[in-house]
Design a protein that fits this description.
It is globular and about 85 Å long. The protein contains ten helices and 19 strands. Helix 5 runs parallel beside helix 6. The relative contact order is 0.10. It has 395 residues and is of the alpha/beta class. The strands form four sheets. A six-stranded antiparallel β-sheet has the order 4-3-6-1-2-5.
C-alpha cells in the first residue's frame, strides 16, 4: 500500500504575516495592564529596587574604632519595606562628604530574617585616612537619612556548589558576613555547618564576640575560633590563620573556604591555601574593597608623576580633575566631586565599567576582573585601576 506524503510549500509562509495583521486589526484595542500588576514584576521590584531609602534607627558601639548602624525603611521617602537578601550579601551606601560624592559597600551583618521585620545592620570600622568611614563614625546619628542600593554580591552559600561545611576565614570587620550566615543557620534559613576562624591582633579587637558565642552555644552547627596574632588568651589560638590551622578544624570530606578580610590577609592566605589541595569551586573570596599601595607591586612602572590629570566624560558632561596616582581612578574621580557609578570597588561587579580613551594605567593582576573583550578593546574598571600618566576616560 502506498501513502501520500504532503509536501510543505515554502510560499505558504508568505501568507502568515498578512493574515496575522488582519486578525489583529479586527480586535478592539485594550489598554495593557500596569507593569506592577504582574506578580513577577512586583517580586523583582521588591528584591531589586533601584534605590532604598533608609533611616538610622540605632547605633551600637563596637569599641574604639567600630560601630554598627541599624537601618529601618524610610517610609517618608517611599521605601515601605526592605529588600530581602541572602546571608553574605552587601549594600552600597551613597555619601556626600564635602564636595566628594562617594559610594561604599558594606556587608549586612543582620540576618535575612531581620529584613522581613524592617531591619538592616552594617558595621563600620575606622580606616586610617578613610574619608567615608571617618565621616560615618563621627557624623552619623540616629534619625539620619541614608540612601543604599539593593542587596548585591554572590558571597553566599550554595548547596549545589559548596561543601556541607563552610570554614569562614575572617579578619577584622570581615567577620560581618559570617555573623549574618551564623544567624541564618540558627534561624533555619541556611542548611550548612559553619566553622569561623576569626583573626584579630588581640581580644579587644574582636567584634561580635558575645553574639557569636551565644549563637554557637545555642546551635551545634556553629563553631567560633578566635585567632590572636599579638596576644595569648584562654580558648584562643595564637598566631595567624594558616593551612595547618585550617586542617586542625576542617572536617573529613569536602568543605568550602569563605574568606573575608583586608588585602594583606588575602595575599597571605593565597599561598597557604595551595597546600590544602581544594578544588577551585570550594574557595570563595569576598571583595575586600579598593586595592592599596600599588607602587609596592613588582609590576608597577617607574617614573610616575606625583599628580596626574584625569579627564572624564560622564552622561554627556565633561570633567577634569587633578589626582594622586596612588588613588584608584574611581577614588580620585569621587574626591573630585564627579558622581561616578560604583558598587563592589574591587574589580568584580563591573558597575564602574569605563573606556580608556587615552593615557597609561596600571591594573594589578590579582584584582583584574575584566572580561577578555574589555581588556582587548580598552575598557577598564576604575575601582581597581591606577593612572600612571594623564588620562581620559568615558564612563
Amino acid at each position: 500500500m502506498g501513502s501520500k506524503i504532503k509536501t510543505l510549500k515554502i510560499t505558504n509562509f508568505l501568507s502568515i504575516a498578512p493574515t496575522r495583521v488582519k486578525t489583529i486589526e479586527k480586535e478592539k484595542a485594550v489598554p495593557l495592564p500596569q507593569k506592577d500588576s504582574y506578580t513577577a514584576n512586583r517580586i523583582a521590584n521588591a528584591l531589586h529596587p533601584e534605590v532604598q531609602h533608609l533611616v538610622i534607627s540605632d547605633i551600637i558601639d563596637r569599641g574604639e574604632n567600630a560601630k554598627s548602624f541599624v537601618f529601618a525603611p524610610d517610609k517618608e521617602n517611599g521605601t515601605d519595606a526592605l529588600a530581602y537578601f541572602s546571608a553574605g550579601q552587601y549594600i552600597t551606601i551613597s555619601l556626600t562628604v564635602g564636595k566628594a560624592v562617594l559610594s561604599r559597600p558594606y556587608s549586612l551583618s543582620s540576618s535575612p530574617k531581620d529584613s522581613l521585620n524592617g531591619r538592616y545592620e552594617i558595621t563600620v570600622k575606622r580606616a586610617e585616612g578613610g574619608l567615608a568611614s571617618n565621616f560615618m563614625l563621627d557624623q552619623w546619628k540616629i534619625g539620619d537619612k541614608v540612601q543604599a542600593s539593593a542587596p548585591l554580591g554572590d558571597f553566599t552559600y550554595e548547596p549545589l556548589r559548596d561543601g556541607k561545611t563552610v570554614i569562614a576565614l575572617a579578619g577584622g570587620s570581615g567577620i560581618t558576613p559570617f555573623v549574618s550566615l551564623a544567624k541564618a543557620i540558627s534561624d533555619g534559613d541556611e542548611d550548612c555547618n559553619l566553622i569561623i576562624l576569626y583573626g584579630t591582633k588581640n581580644k579587644k579587637e574582636i567584634l561580635f564576640e558575645s553574639k557569636l558565642s551565644k549563637l554557637a552555644k545555642e546551635c551545634d552547627r556553629i563553631k567560633v575560633v578566635n585567632v590572636l596574632s599579638d596576644e595569648d588568651a584562654k580558648d584562643c589560638e595564637k598566631g595567624f590563620i594558616t593551612a595547618d590551622l585550617i586542617k586542625k578544624y576542617a572536617p573529613e570530606g569536602d568543605y568550602s573556604l569563605f574568606i573575608c578580610g583586608p588585602q594583606g590577609m588575602y595575599e597571605f592566605l593565597k599561598k597557604e591555601i595551595i597546600s590544602l589541595g581544594l578544588r577551585p569551586k570550594f574557595v570563595r573570596n569576598e571583595v575586600f574593597g579598593e586595592y592599596r599601595n600599588p607602587q609596592k607591586d613588582e609590576g608597577y612602572p617607574d617614573g610616575v608623576k606625583e599628580s596626574v590629570t584625569i579627564k572624564i566624560r560622564l552622561d554627556g558632561k565633561d570633567y577634569q580633575i587633578t589626582a594622586n596616582p596612588n588613588d584608584t581612578i574611581l577614588s580620585a574621580v569621587e574626591k573630585g566631586g564627579v558622581p561616578a557609578p560604583a558598587h563592589c570597588r574591587s574589580g568584580i561587579c563591573g558597575w564602574c565599567h569605563a573606556r580608556l580613551l587615552s593615557g597609561d594605567v596600571y591594573i594589578p593582576k590579582s584584582v583584574d576582573g575584566r572580561r577578555m573583550a574589555d581588556s582587548e578593546f580598552g575598557y577598564i574598571h576604575p575601582c581597581c585601576t591606577f593612572a600612571t600618566s594623564d588620562i581620559e576616560i568615558e564612563i
